[in-house]
Specification:
about 45% helix, 5-stranded antiparallel β-sheet, TATA-Binding Protein
Length: about 180
Amino acid sequence: MFKVIGGIVAGVVLTAGLVWQLAGSMMFSEIPSPFSVEETTARIQQNIQAAGNGWSISGLRNPAKPVEAEGGNVLPVLLIEACSTKYSGPILKMDKVRFLSLLMPCKISVYKKNDGKVYIGILNAGLIAKLFGSEVGAIMEQVVVDQKSFLIMDPSKPAPALIVPKMDGGGGGSGAAAAGGC
């Protein structure tokens, strides 16, 4: 009897440890880019604008800037904020999942690592879809499709200009209020 209980406890502990170790790689994806941080960001912005489905760029942030202002030295990082009222609206109307506003607007990070390469970091919207039931799931599955189109990098197309949303002057730094947010 003790062997069975011990085996079950060991299995639960092993499973919990495995989930703990893999959770980060399941929640987020990192994709290499063949372009610079600025060009990758501009291409993603252009793709967001072309996606339709109510998508707009609500902000562009440089989270490295405050670190540099305090004398720190970090590699380039740009954070693109995008939102679609087609997708955010229904979620914001549901009391039981309104807390998902924490994920709005959608963010895509473009950054350089010490290996000299540029990467794109994204949240796994498909996993979010599975965690919060069928209503949110159906919406987030559509976000997944659109998100994939944001990341298409066609080197045969000329590099677009970087879009820097106008700041609202409120000190938030994201430009979301000036661009309408979500």
